[in-house]
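Before relying on records like the one below, remember that each one covers exactly one chain. Contacts with other chains, cofactors or solvent are not represented anywhere in the record.
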Amino acid sequence: METTFDARSLLATLTELPGVYRMIDAAGTVLYVGKAKNLRKRVASYFRDRHPSPRIALMIAQIAAVETTVTRSEAEALLLENNLIKSLSPRYNILFRDDKSYPYIVLTHDHYPRLGFFRGAVDKRADYFGPFPSSQAVRESIQLLQKMFRLRTCENAVFSNRSRPCLLYQIKRCSGPCVGLTAPERYAEDVEMASMFLQGRQQDVIGRLSAAMDQAAARLAFEQAAICRDQIQSLRQVQERQYVDSGKGSDMDIVVAVEESGVLCVNLAMVRGGRHLGDRPQFPRNSADSSALEALTAFLTQHYLAHPVPPRILVNLPPADDELAEWLGELAARPVRVVAPRLTIQRIWVEMAEQNARLAIAARRSALSRQGERVDALCEVLQLDVEDGKEVRIECFDISHTQGDATVAACVVYQGSGMRKSDYRRFNIQDIQPGDDYAAIRQAVLRRYAKLLTSDGAAPTLILIDGGSGQVSAAVSALDELGLSHLPLLGVAKGEARKPGLETLIFADGREPLQLASEHPALHLIQEVRDEAHRFAISGHRARRGKTARTSRLEEISGIGPKRRKGLISRFGGLQGISDAGIDQLTAVPGISRELAEKIYAALH
Protein backbone atom coordinates (compact mmCIF):
# COMPACT_ATOMS: atom_id res chain seq x y z
CA MET A 1 0.00 0.00 0.00
CA GLU A 2 1.30 3.44 -0.87
CA THR A 3 2.66 5.43 2.07
CA THR A 4 1.61 8.83 0.71
CA PHE A 5 -1.97 9.95 0.81
CA ASP A 6 -3.53 12.63 -1.38
CA ALA A 7 -6.74 13.81 0.31
CA ARG A 8 -7.63 16.21 -2.53
CA SER A 9 -7.63 13.43 -5.14
CA LEU A 10 -9.73 11.23 -2.87
CA LEU A 11 -12.36 13.91 -2.26
CA ALA A 12 -12.73 14.51 -6.00
CA THR A 13 -13.88 10.91 -6.44
CA LEU A 14 -16.36 10.72 -3.56
CA THR A 15 -20.13 10.73 -3.97
CA GLU A 16 -22.66 12.78 -2.05
CA LEU A 17 -24.78 9.71 -1.31
CA PRO A 18 -25.08 8.21 2.20
CA GLY A 19 -22.64 5.50 3.18
CA VAL A 20 -19.81 4.29 5.38
CA TYR A 21 -16.11 5.24 5.24
CA ARG A 22 -13.06 3.45 6.64
CA MET A 23 -9.77 5.18 7.50
CA ILE A 24 -6.84 2.79 6.89
CA ASP A 25 -3.15 3.09 7.83
CA ALA A 26 -0.07 2.02 5.87
CA ALA A 27 -0.18 -1.50 7.35
CA GLY A 28 -3.75 -2.02 6.13
CA THR A 29 -5.26 -1.73 9.61
CA VAL A 30 -8.62 0.03 9.87
CA LEU A 31 -8.20 3.03 12.16
CA TYR A 32 -11.75 4.36 12.17
CA VAL A 33 -15.18 3.53 10.77
CA GLY A 34 -17.80 6.24 10.32
CA LYS A 35 -21.18 6.78 8.70
CA ALA A 36 -22.25 9.77 6.61
CA LYS A 37 -25.41 11.32 5.27
CA ASN A 38 -23.19 12.81 2.56
CA LEU A 39 -19.91 10.94 2.09
CA ARG A 40 -18.04 13.77 0.33
CA LYS A 41 -18.89 16.43 2.93
CA ARG A 42 -18.28 14.15 5.90
CA VAL A 43 -14.88 12.86 4.77
CA ALA A 44 -13.82 16.38 3.69
CA SER A 45 -14.43 17.62 7.25
CA TYR A 46 -11.47 15.54 8.46
CA PHE A 47 -8.93 17.22 6.19
CA ARG A 48 -9.11 20.79 7.42
CA ASP A 49 -6.02 22.79 8.30
CA ARG A 50 -6.73 22.45 12.01
CA HIS A 51 -8.76 19.89 13.84
CA PRO A 52 -10.15 20.62 17.33
CA SER A 53 -9.55 17.06 18.60
CA PRO A 54 -5.91 15.97 19.21
CA ARG A 55 -7.07 12.38 19.04
CA ILE A 56 -8.57 12.77 15.55
CA ALA A 57 -5.56 14.84 14.42
CA LEU A 58 -3.30 11.93 15.42
CA MET A 59 -5.48 9.51 13.47
CA ILE A 60 -5.45 11.69 10.34
CA ALA A 61 -1.65 11.74 10.39
CA GLN A 62 -1.68 7.93 10.06
CA ILE A 63 -4.17 7.67 7.17
CA ALA A 64 -2.83 5.97 4.05
CA ALA A 65 -6.16 5.23 2.37
CA VAL A 66 -9.89 5.78 2.73
CA GLU A 67 -12.42 3.21 1.56
CA THR A 68 -16.12 3.94 1.19
CA THR A 69 -19.29 1.90 0.79
CA VAL A 70 -22.44 3.53 -0.55
CA THR A 71 -25.75 2.53 1.08
CA ARG A 72 -29.36 3.09 0.09
CA SER A 73 -30.31 5.01 3.23
CA GLU A 74 -28.89 6.61 6.36
CA ALA A 75 -30.36 3.83 8.52
CA GLU A 76 -28.60 1.23 6.36
CA ALA A 77 -25.35 3.17 6.80
CA LEU A 78 -25.85 3.14 10.56
CA LEU A 79 -26.34 -0.64 10.55
CA LEU A 80 -23.28 -1.26 8.37
CA GLU A 81 -21.15 1.07 10.48
CA ASN A 82 -22.07 -0.79 13.66
CA ASN A 83 -21.37 -4.20 12.10
CA LEU A 84 -17.92 -3.05 10.92
CA ILE A 85 -17.10 -1.52 14.31
CA LYS A 86 -17.97 -4.79 16.07
CA SER A 87 -16.00 -6.95 13.62
CA LEU A 88 -12.93 -4.70 13.22
CA SER A 89 -12.69 -2.94 16.63
CA PRO A 90 -10.93 0.14 15.18
CA ARG A 91 -8.66 1.84 17.70
CA TYR A 92 -10.15 5.31 17.16
CA ASN A 93 -13.82 4.31 17.46
CA ILE A 94 -15.46 4.61 20.85
CA LEU A 95 -16.55 1.04 21.64
CA PHE A 96 -19.20 -0.15 24.06
CA ARG A 97 -19.65 -3.69 25.29
CA ASP A 98 -21.92 -5.60 22.92
CA ASP A 99 -24.53 -6.63 25.48
CA LYS A 100 -27.51 -8.33 23.85
CA SER A 101 -28.57 -10.08 27.02
CA TYR A 102 -30.87 -7.50 28.59
CA PRO A 103 -33.59 -9.46 30.40
CA TYR A 104 -37.34 -9.41 29.72
CA ILE A 105 -40.52 -10.54 31.45
CA VAL A 106 -42.34 -13.15 29.36
CA LEU A 107 -46.01 -14.14 29.33
CA THR A 108 -46.41 -17.31 27.27
CA HIS A 109 -49.40 -18.17 25.07
CA ASP A 110 -50.16 -21.47 26.84
CA HIS A 111 -53.69 -22.38 27.93
CA TYR A 112 -52.58 -21.21 31.38
CA PRO A 113 -49.89 -18.64 30.46
CA ARG A 114 -46.62 -18.74 32.39
CA LEU A 115 -44.97 -15.64 33.85
CA GLY A 116 -41.20 -15.81 33.72
CA PHE A 117 -37.73 -14.37 33.32
CA PHE A 118 -36.36 -14.38 29.78
CA ARG A 119 -33.11 -13.64 27.96
CA GLY A 120 -32.45 -14.10 24.26
CA ALA A 121 -34.18 -13.52 20.94
CA VAL A 122 -37.91 -12.83 21.19
CA ASP A 123 -40.51 -14.53 18.96
CA LYS A 124 -44.27 -14.58 18.43
CA ARG A 125 -44.96 -17.51 20.73
CA ALA A 126 -45.15 -15.25 23.78
CA ASP A 127 -45.55 -11.63 24.89
CA TYR A 128 -42.35 -9.91 26.06
CA PHE A 129 -42.10 -6.85 28.29
CA GLY A 130 -38.91 -4.87 28.66
CA PRO A 131 -36.04 -4.82 28.29
CA PHE A 132 -35.06 -4.27 31.92
CA PRO A 133 -31.67 -2.86 32.98
CA SER A 134 -30.86 -5.79 35.27
CA SER A 135 -32.03 -9.25 36.26
CA GLN A 136 -32.81 -7.91 39.74
CA ALA A 137 -35.34 -5.46 38.25
CA VAL A 138 -37.04 -8.34 36.41
CA ARG A 139 -37.21 -10.57 39.49
CA GLU A 140 -38.59 -7.76 41.64
CA SER A 141 -41.30 -7.12 39.05
CA ILE A 142 -42.12 -10.84 38.80
CA GLN A 143 -42.44 -11.07 42.59
CA LEU A 144 -44.77 -8.07 42.54
CA LEU A 145 -46.90 -9.62 39.78
CA GLN A 146 -47.04 -12.93 41.66
CA LYS A 147 -48.27 -11.13 44.75
CA MET A 148 -50.93 -9.17 42.86
CA PHE A 149 -52.14 -11.62 40.20
CA ARG A 150 -50.92 -15.06 41.34
CA LEU A 151 -49.76 -16.30 37.94
CA ARG A 152 -47.81 -19.52 37.60
CA THR A 153 -44.04 -19.35 37.06
CA CYS A 154 -43.25 -23.07 36.75
CA GLU A 155 -42.01 -24.63 33.51
CA ASN A 156 -44.47 -26.62 31.39
CA ALA A 157 -42.79 -29.95 32.23
CA VAL A 158 -43.43 -29.33 35.94
CA PHE A 159 -46.88 -27.82 35.40
CA SER A 160 -48.12 -30.78 33.36
CA ASN A 161 -47.10 -33.36 35.96
CA ARG A 162 -48.32 -31.81 39.21
CA SER A 163 -50.74 -33.82 41.33
CA ARG A 164 -51.06 -31.25 44.13
CA PRO A 165 -50.32 -27.52 44.42
CA CYS A 166 -46.81 -26.35 45.26
CA LEU A 167 -45.55 -24.07 48.03
CA LEU A 168 -46.26 -20.93 45.98
CA TYR A 169 -49.96 -21.73 46.21
CA GLN A 170 -49.70 -22.14 49.97
CA ILE A 171 -48.10 -18.69 50.40
CA LYS A 172 -50.66 -17.08 48.05
CA ARG A 173 -48.25 -16.41 45.17
CA CYS A 174 -50.00 -18.74 42.69
CA SER A 175 -53.67 -19.60 42.09
CA GLY A 176 -52.97 -23.33 41.52
CA PRO A 177 -54.01 -23.75 37.86
CA CYS A 178 -51.91 -26.93 37.65
CA VAL A 179 -54.51 -28.87 39.64
CA GLY A 180 -57.61 -26.90 38.61
CA LEU A 181 -57.93 -24.66 41.68
CA THR A 182 -58.78 -21.66 39.50
CA ALA A 183 -61.13 -21.44 36.56
CA PRO A 184 -59.58 -20.76 33.12
CA GLU A 185 -61.71 -17.63 32.75
CA ARG A 186 -60.55 -16.22 36.09
CA TYR A 187 -56.93 -17.01 35.29
CA ALA A 188 -57.27 -15.34 31.87
CA GLU A 189 -58.54 -12.17 33.59
CA ASP A 190 -55.47 -12.14 35.86
CA VAL A 191 -53.19 -12.60 32.85
CA GLU A 192 -54.88 -9.71 31.05
CA MET A 193 -54.51 -7.41 34.08
CA ALA A 194 -50.86 -8.38 34.52
CA SER A 195 -50.27 -7.51 30.87
CA MET A 196 -52.05 -4.16 31.34
CA PHE A 197 -49.91 -3.46 34.41
CA LEU A 198 -46.70 -4.15 32.47
CA GLN A 199 -47.91 -1.80 29.73
CA GLY A 200 -48.30 1.01 32.27
CA ARG A 201 -52.11 0.92 32.40
CA GLN A 202 -52.29 0.78 36.20
CA GLN A 203 -55.34 3.04 36.43
CA ASP A 204 -57.28 0.70 34.13
CA VAL A 205 -56.28 -2.26 36.29
CA ILE A 206 -57.39 -0.49 39.48
CA GLY A 207 -60.72 0.39 37.85
CA ARG A 208 -61.39 -3.22 36.89
CA LEU A 209 -60.35 -4.50 40.32
CA SER A 210 -62.58 -1.96 42.06
CA ALA A 211 -65.56 -3.04 39.98
CA ALA A 212 -64.79 -6.71 40.69
CA MET A 213 -64.52 -5.96 44.43
CA ASP A 214 -67.90 -4.21 44.49
CA GLN A 215 -69.55 -7.06 42.59
CA ALA A 216 -68.05 -9.66 44.94
CA ALA A 217 -69.18 -7.69 47.99
CA ALA A 218 -72.70 -7.34 46.55
CA ARG A 219 -73.07 -11.11 46.27
CA LEU A 220 -71.50 -11.57 49.74
CA ALA A 221 -68.32 -13.17 48.35
CA PHE A 222 -66.22 -11.37 50.92
CA GLU A 223 -63.13 -13.56 50.50
CA GLN A 224 -62.97 -12.70 46.79
CA ALA A 225 -63.59 -9.03 47.60
CA ALA A 226 -60.68 -9.09 50.07
CA ILE A 227 -58.36 -10.48 47.37
CA CYS A 228 -59.31 -7.61 45.03
CA ARG A 229 -58.81 -5.13 47.87
CA ASP A 230 -55.29 -6.44 48.54
CA GLN A 231 -54.45 -6.23 44.84
CA ILE A 232 -55.61 -2.61 44.71
CA GLN A 233 -53.53 -1.72 47.78
CA SER A 234 -50.43 -3.31 46.23
CA LEU A 235 -50.96 -1.35 43.02
CA ARG A 236 -51.38 1.94 44.88
CA GLN A 237 -48.14 1.30 46.78
CA VAL A 238 -46.33 0.83 43.48
CA GLN A 239 -47.81 4.06 42.15
CA GLU A 240 -46.78 6.03 45.20
CA ARG A 241 -43.22 4.74 44.97
CA GLN A 242 -42.52 4.85 41.25
CA TYR A 243 -45.41 5.80 39.00
CA VAL A 244 -45.69 9.24 37.42
CA ASP A 245 -49.37 10.03 37.03
CA SER A 246 -49.31 11.70 33.62
CA GLY A 247 -52.55 10.24 32.32
CA LYS A 248 -50.87 7.14 30.93
CA GLY A 249 -47.73 5.11 31.46
CA SER A 250 -44.79 6.04 29.26
CA ASP A 251 -41.80 4.17 27.86
CA MET A 252 -38.54 6.08 27.63
CA ASP A 253 -34.82 5.70 28.18
CA ILE A 254 -32.61 8.18 29.99
CA VAL A 255 -29.07 8.25 28.60
CA VAL A 256 -26.47 10.52 30.19
CA ALA A 257 -22.74 10.86 29.59
CA VAL A 258 -20.50 12.12 32.40
CA GLU A 259 -16.74 12.72 32.41
CA GLU A 260 -14.81 13.07 35.67
CA SER A 261 -11.09 12.81 36.35
CA GLY A 262 -10.45 11.54 32.84
CA VAL A 263 -13.01 8.72 33.08
CA LEU A 264 -16.07 8.65 30.79
CA CYS A 265 -19.26 6.89 31.83
CA VAL A 266 -22.50 6.53 29.89
CA ASN A 267 -25.43 5.60 32.14
CA LEU A 268 -28.62 4.08 30.74
CA ALA A 269 -31.80 4.22 32.84
CA MET A 270 -35.08 2.67 31.72
CA VAL A 271 -38.66 3.75 32.32
CA ARG A 272 -41.31 1.25 31.26
CA GLY A 273 -45.01 1.84 31.75
CA GLY A 274 -44.20 4.94 33.77
CA ARG A 275 -42.06 2.98 36.26
CA HIS A 276 -38.38 3.73 36.73
CA LEU A 277 -36.68 0.31 36.57
CA GLY A 278 -33.11 1.25 37.48
CA ASP A 279 -30.01 1.95 35.45
CA ARG A 280 -26.81 0.43 34.10
CA PRO A 281 -23.51 2.35 33.79
CA GLN A 282 -21.13 1.52 30.94
CA PHE A 283 -17.54 2.54 30.32
CA PRO A 284 -16.45 2.82 26.66
CA ARG A 285 -13.14 1.68 25.24
CA ASN A 286 -10.96 3.86 23.01
CA SER A 287 -12.48 6.99 24.56
CA ALA A 288 -9.27 8.89 25.42
CA ASP A 289 -9.58 12.61 24.52
CA SER A 290 -13.22 12.06 23.48
CA SER A 291 -15.94 14.38 24.71
CA ALA A 292 -18.97 13.25 26.71
CA LEU A 293 -21.20 14.14 23.74
CA GLU A 294 -19.14 11.93 21.41
CA ALA A 295 -19.43 9.03 23.85
CA LEU A 296 -23.17 9.55 24.21
CA THR A 297 -23.68 9.64 20.43
CA ALA A 298 -21.59 6.49 19.98
CA PHE A 299 -23.64 4.70 22.63
CA LEU A 300 -26.97 5.65 21.06
CA THR A 301 -25.94 4.42 17.62
CA GLN A 302 -24.47 1.14 18.87
CA HIS A 303 -26.99 0.24 21.58
CA TYR A 304 -30.24 0.69 19.66
CA LEU A 305 -29.18 -1.45 16.73
CA ALA A 306 -29.43 -4.42 19.10
CA HIS A 307 -32.32 -3.30 21.36
CA PRO A 308 -35.81 -1.83 20.96
CA VAL A 309 -35.94 1.94 20.49
CA PRO A 310 -38.40 3.68 22.86
CA PRO A 311 -40.51 6.59 21.58
CA ARG A 312 -38.50 9.07 23.65
CA ILE A 313 -34.87 9.20 24.78
CA LEU A 314 -33.93 11.80 27.40
CA VAL A 315 -30.31 12.94 27.29
CA ASN A 316 -28.24 15.38 29.31
CA LEU A 317 -26.33 16.48 26.20
CA PRO A 318 -28.75 16.98 23.29
CA PRO A 319 -27.34 16.48 19.76
CA ALA A 320 -26.79 19.63 17.68
CA ASP A 321 -29.36 18.51 15.08
CA ASP A 322 -32.11 15.94 14.47
CA GLU A 323 -29.92 13.62 12.37
CA LEU A 324 -29.54 10.99 15.10
CA ALA A 325 -33.26 11.05 15.95
CA GLU A 326 -34.10 10.60 12.27
CA TRP A 327 -31.78 7.58 12.02
CA LEU A 328 -33.32 6.00 15.11
CA GLY A 329 -36.80 6.76 13.84
CA GLU A 330 -36.01 5.01 10.57
CA LEU A 331 -34.78 1.98 12.50
CA ALA A 332 -37.88 1.91 14.70
CA ALA A 333 -40.26 2.68 11.79
CA ARG A 334 -41.90 5.44 13.87
CA PRO A 335 -40.93 8.87 15.22
CA VAL A 336 -38.27 8.91 17.95
CA ARG A 337 -37.42 11.98 20.00
CA VAL A 338 -33.92 12.51 21.44
CA VAL A 339 -34.39 15.50 23.74
CA ALA A 340 -33.31 17.22 26.94
CA PRO A 341 -35.71 16.91 29.92
CA ARG A 342 -38.49 19.47 30.23
CA LEU A 343 -40.89 18.24 32.91
CA THR A 344 -39.85 18.27 36.55
CA ILE A 345 -39.92 14.48 36.89
CA GLN A 346 -37.84 14.13 33.73
CA ARG A 347 -35.21 16.50 35.11
CA ILE A 348 -35.16 14.49 38.33
CA TRP A 349 -34.59 11.27 36.36
CA VAL A 350 -31.74 12.81 34.34
CA GLU A 351 -30.10 14.25 37.49
CA MET A 352 -30.44 10.88 39.20
CA ALA A 353 -28.83 9.15 36.21
CA GLU A 354 -25.96 11.66 36.26
CA GLN A 355 -25.45 11.13 39.99
CA ASN A 356 -25.37 7.34 39.50
CA ALA A 357 -22.83 7.79 36.69
CA ARG A 358 -20.58 9.81 39.03
CA LEU A 359 -20.90 7.15 41.71
CA ALA A 360 -20.01 4.47 39.14
CA ILE A 361 -16.92 6.46 38.10
CA ALA A 362 -15.83 6.78 41.74
CA ALA A 363 -16.35 3.06 42.30
CA ARG A 364 -14.43 2.21 39.13
CA ARG A 365 -11.51 4.42 40.07
CA SER A 366 -11.41 2.84 43.51
CA ALA A 367 -11.55 -0.69 42.04
CA LEU A 368 -8.81 0.11 39.52
CA SER A 369 -6.64 1.46 42.32
CA ARG A 370 -7.12 -1.70 44.38
CA GLN A 371 -6.44 -3.94 41.39
CA GLY A 372 -3.27 -1.97 40.63
CA GLU A 373 -2.08 -2.47 44.20
CA ARG A 374 -2.76 -6.21 43.96
CA VAL A 375 -0.92 -6.57 40.66
CA ASP A 376 2.08 -4.62 41.97
CA ALA A 377 2.18 -6.75 45.11
CA LEU A 378 2.01 -9.95 43.03
CA CYS A 379 4.85 -8.86 40.75
CA GLU A 380 6.95 -7.95 43.76
CA VAL A 381 6.42 -11.12 45.77
CA LEU A 382 6.89 -13.44 42.76
CA GLN A 383 9.70 -11.36 41.21
CA LEU A 384 7.91 -11.10 37.86
CA ASP A 385 9.56 -9.03 35.13
CA VAL A 386 7.00 -6.87 33.32
CA GLU A 387 7.94 -4.49 30.52
CA ASP A 388 7.01 -0.85 31.01
CA GLY A 389 3.60 -0.08 29.56
CA LYS A 390 2.67 -3.76 29.21
CA GLU A 391 -0.31 -5.18 31.08
CA VAL A 392 0.10 -8.18 33.38
CA ARG A 393 -1.73 -11.20 31.96
CA ILE A 394 -2.51 -14.13 34.27
CA GLU A 395 -3.97 -17.40 32.98
CA CYS A 396 -5.32 -19.98 35.44
CA PHE A 397 -6.23 -23.64 34.85
CA ASP A 398 -8.61 -25.85 36.82
CA ILE A 399 -10.09 -29.33 36.30
CA SER A 400 -13.62 -30.47 37.13
CA HIS A 401 -15.16 -33.96 36.95
CA THR A 402 -17.37 -36.35 38.89
CA GLN A 403 -15.40 -39.45 39.79
CA GLY A 404 -13.52 -39.12 36.52
CA ASP A 405 -16.65 -38.71 34.41
CA ALA A 406 -17.17 -35.81 31.92
CA THR A 407 -13.81 -34.19 32.71
CA VAL A 408 -13.55 -30.52 31.72
CA ALA A 409 -10.51 -28.24 31.97
CA ALA A 410 -10.98 -24.48 32.15
CA CYS A 411 -8.59 -21.62 31.50
CA VAL A 412 -9.55 -18.10 32.59
CA VAL A 413 -7.65 -14.89 31.90
CA TYR A 414 -6.97 -11.82 34.04
CA GLN A 415 -5.51 -8.82 32.23
CA GLY A 416 -5.37 -5.09 32.86
CA SER A 417 -7.83 -4.45 35.65
CA GLY A 418 -10.10 -7.48 35.60
CA MET A 419 -11.15 -10.79 34.13
CA ARG A 420 -11.16 -10.96 30.32
CA LYS A 421 -14.04 -13.32 29.60
CA SER A 422 -13.65 -13.18 25.82
CA ASP A 423 -10.34 -15.04 26.24
CA TYR A 424 -11.73 -17.82 28.45
CA ARG A 425 -11.44 -21.36 27.09
CA ARG A 426 -12.80 -24.79 28.05
CA PHE A 427 -11.39 -28.16 26.98
CA ASN A 428 -13.28 -31.46 27.01
CA ILE A 429 -10.58 -33.84 28.21
CA GLN A 430 -10.43 -37.17 26.38
CA ASP A 431 -8.24 -40.28 26.06
CA ILE A 432 -6.97 -40.26 29.65
CA GLN A 433 -7.48 -42.57 32.61
CA PRO A 434 -10.67 -41.39 34.40
CA GLY A 435 -9.78 -39.26 37.42
CA ASP A 436 -6.19 -38.59 36.31
CA ASP A 437 -5.96 -34.86 37.10
CA TYR A 438 -2.27 -34.74 36.18
CA ALA A 439 -2.92 -35.99 32.66
CA ALA A 440 -5.90 -33.63 32.36
CA ILE A 441 -3.79 -30.60 33.30
CA ARG A 442 -1.05 -31.67 30.90
CA GLN A 443 -3.52 -32.04 28.02
CA ALA A 444 -5.16 -28.67 28.74
CA VAL A 445 -1.83 -26.81 28.88
CA LEU A 446 -0.67 -28.48 25.64
CA ARG A 447 -3.85 -27.56 23.81
CA ARG A 448 -3.89 -24.01 25.17
CA TYR A 449 -0.34 -23.01 24.31
CA ALA A 450 0.27 -25.00 21.14
CA LYS A 451 -1.32 -22.05 19.33
CA LEU A 452 1.47 -19.74 20.56
CA LEU A 453 3.86 -21.64 18.29
CA THR A 454 1.83 -20.95 15.14
CA SER A 455 0.22 -17.56 15.82
CA ASP A 456 0.85 -14.23 17.50
CA GLY A 457 -1.36 -14.96 20.50
CA ALA A 458 -0.66 -13.16 23.77
CA ALA A 459 1.76 -15.01 26.05
CA PRO A 460 0.86 -14.94 29.75
CA THR A 461 2.93 -13.10 32.32
CA LEU A 462 2.06 -15.84 34.81
CA ILE A 463 0.38 -19.25 34.60
CA LEU A 464 -1.56 -20.41 37.67
CA ILE A 465 -2.43 -24.07 38.23
CA ASP A 466 -5.12 -24.94 40.76
CA GLY A 467 -3.34 -27.80 42.46
CA GLY A 468 -0.18 -28.98 44.17
CA SER A 469 3.21 -30.23 43.08
CA GLY A 470 1.80 -33.08 40.95
CA GLN A 471 -0.31 -30.75 38.82
CA VAL A 472 2.57 -28.28 38.57
CA SER A 473 4.93 -31.03 37.34
CA ALA A 474 2.40 -32.08 34.70
CA ALA A 475 2.03 -28.49 33.47
CA VAL A 476 5.82 -27.98 33.41
CA SER A 477 6.17 -31.17 31.34
CA ALA A 478 3.69 -29.81 28.77
CA LEU A 479 5.49 -26.45 28.55
CA ASP A 480 8.84 -28.20 28.11
CA GLU A 481 7.40 -30.23 25.23
CA LEU A 482 6.24 -27.01 23.55
CA GLY A 483 9.53 -25.21 24.15
CA LEU A 484 7.82 -22.67 26.42
CA SER A 485 9.53 -23.53 29.68
CA HIS A 486 10.47 -19.85 30.12
CA LEU A 487 6.86 -18.94 30.99
CA PRO A 488 6.48 -18.38 34.76
CA LEU A 489 4.24 -21.00 36.38
CA LEU A 490 2.81 -21.24 39.89
CA GLY A 491 0.69 -23.87 41.65
CA VAL A 492 -1.96 -22.89 44.19
CA ALA A 493 -2.38 -25.73 46.69
CA LYS A 494 -5.39 -25.58 48.98
CA GLY A 495 -4.73 -25.20 52.68
CA GLU A 496 -5.86 -27.27 55.61
CA ALA A 497 -9.60 -28.07 55.34
CA ARG A 498 -9.53 -26.09 52.07
CA LYS A 499 -9.87 -22.90 54.12
CA PRO A 500 -9.25 -19.68 52.12
CA GLY A 501 -6.18 -17.78 53.27
CA LEU A 502 -4.14 -20.92 53.98
CA GLU A 503 -3.12 -21.61 50.37
CA THR A 504 0.46 -22.64 49.61
CA LEU A 505 2.16 -21.37 46.45
CA ILE A 506 4.19 -24.05 44.63
CA PHE A 507 6.96 -22.69 42.37
CA ALA A 508 7.86 -24.50 39.17
CA ASP A 509 11.49 -23.32 39.29
CA GLY A 510 12.37 -25.19 42.49
CA ARG A 511 11.99 -22.36 44.97
CA GLU A 512 10.67 -23.21 48.42
CA PRO A 513 6.86 -23.16 48.69
CA LEU A 514 5.46 -19.86 49.95
CA GLN A 515 2.49 -19.15 52.19
CA LEU A 516 1.39 -15.53 52.11
CA ALA A 517 -0.47 -13.81 54.92
CA SER A 518 -4.25 -14.07 54.55
CA GLU A 519 -4.52 -10.27 54.17
CA HIS A 520 -1.77 -9.99 51.53
CA PRO A 521 -3.10 -8.21 48.38
CA ALA A 522 -1.18 -10.58 46.08
CA LEU A 523 -2.94 -13.56 47.66
CA HIS A 524 -6.32 -11.84 47.20
CA LEU A 525 -5.63 -11.49 43.47
CA ILE A 526 -4.53 -15.13 43.18
CA GLN A 527 -7.68 -16.25 45.03
CA GLU A 528 -9.90 -14.14 42.78
CA VAL A 529 -8.46 -15.64 39.59
CA ARG A 530 -8.34 -19.19 41.04
CA ASP A 531 -11.99 -19.00 42.18
CA GLU A 532 -13.10 -17.77 38.76
CA ALA A 533 -11.29 -20.70 37.11
CA HIS A 534 -13.01 -23.06 39.54
CA ARG A 535 -16.44 -21.57 38.76
CA PHE A 536 -15.86 -21.71 35.00
CA ALA A 537 -14.65 -25.32 35.15
CA ILE A 538 -17.60 -26.49 37.26
CA SER A 539 -20.19 -24.81 35.03
CA GLY A 540 -18.62 -26.47 31.97
CA HIS A 541 -18.52 -29.86 33.66
CA ARG A 542 -22.16 -29.61 34.78
CA ALA A 543 -23.25 -28.70 31.27
CA ARG A 544 -21.35 -31.64 29.77
CA ARG A 545 -22.57 -34.06 32.43
CA GLY A 546 -26.16 -32.82 32.12
CA LYS A 547 -26.14 -33.29 28.35
CA THR A 548 -24.89 -36.84 28.76
CA ALA A 549 -27.44 -37.62 31.47
CA ARG A 550 -30.32 -36.30 29.39
CA THR A 551 -29.56 -38.28 26.29
CA SER A 552 -27.33 -41.30 26.90
CA ARG A 553 -29.94 -43.77 28.22
CA LEU A 554 -32.51 -42.72 25.63
CA GLU A 555 -29.98 -43.27 22.84
CA GLU A 556 -29.69 -46.91 23.91
CA ILE A 557 -33.40 -47.55 23.20
CA SER A 558 -34.08 -48.70 19.65
CA GLY A 559 -36.69 -46.62 17.85
CA ILE A 560 -35.77 -43.39 19.68
CA GLY A 561 -34.10 -41.06 17.21
CA PRO A 562 -33.15 -37.40 17.63
CA LYS A 563 -36.66 -36.11 16.84
CA ARG A 564 -38.47 -38.38 19.30
CA ARG A 565 -35.77 -37.84 21.93
CA LYS A 566 -36.20 -34.06 21.59
CA GLY A 567 -39.98 -34.41 21.88
CA LEU A 568 -39.69 -36.47 25.07
CA ILE A 569 -37.24 -34.08 26.71
CA SER A 570 -39.33 -31.03 25.72
CA ARG A 571 -42.46 -32.63 27.20
CA PHE A 572 -41.02 -33.99 30.45
CA GLY A 573 -38.02 -31.70 31.05
CA GLY A 574 -35.33 -34.40 31.21
CA LEU A 575 -34.59 -38.03 31.90
CA GLN A 576 -36.02 -37.91 35.44
CA GLY A 577 -39.33 -36.56 34.16
CA ILE A 578 -39.46 -39.25 31.48
CA SER A 579 -38.74 -41.93 34.10
CA ASP A 580 -41.56 -40.61 36.32
CA ALA A 581 -44.08 -40.61 33.44
CA GLY A 582 -46.49 -43.47 32.96
CA ILE A 583 -47.11 -45.33 29.69
CA ASP A 584 -50.25 -43.33 28.93
CA GLN A 585 -48.35 -40.05 29.44
CA LEU A 586 -45.55 -41.25 27.16
CA THR A 587 -47.99 -42.07 24.36
CA ALA A 588 -49.21 -38.45 24.44
CA VAL A 589 -45.88 -37.38 22.89
CA PRO A 590 -46.12 -37.15 19.08
CA GLY A 591 -44.43 -40.15 17.42
CA ILE A 592 -44.51 -42.40 20.52
CA SER A 593 -46.73 -45.44 19.98
CA ARG A 594 -47.97 -47.55 22.88
CA GLU A 595 -45.52 -50.32 22.00
CA LEU A 596 -42.63 -47.83 22.01
CA ALA A 597 -43.89 -46.26 25.25
CA GLU A 598 -43.86 -49.68 26.93
CA LYS A 599 -40.30 -50.21 25.67
CA ILE A 600 -39.20 -46.83 27.08
CA TYR A 601 -40.90 -47.52 30.41
CA ALA A 602 -39.25 -50.94 30.70
CA ALA A 603 -35.80 -49.55 29.82
CA LEU A 604 -35.98 -46.84 32.49
CA HIS A 605 -37.34 -48.96 35.34
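The chain has 20 helices and 18 strands.
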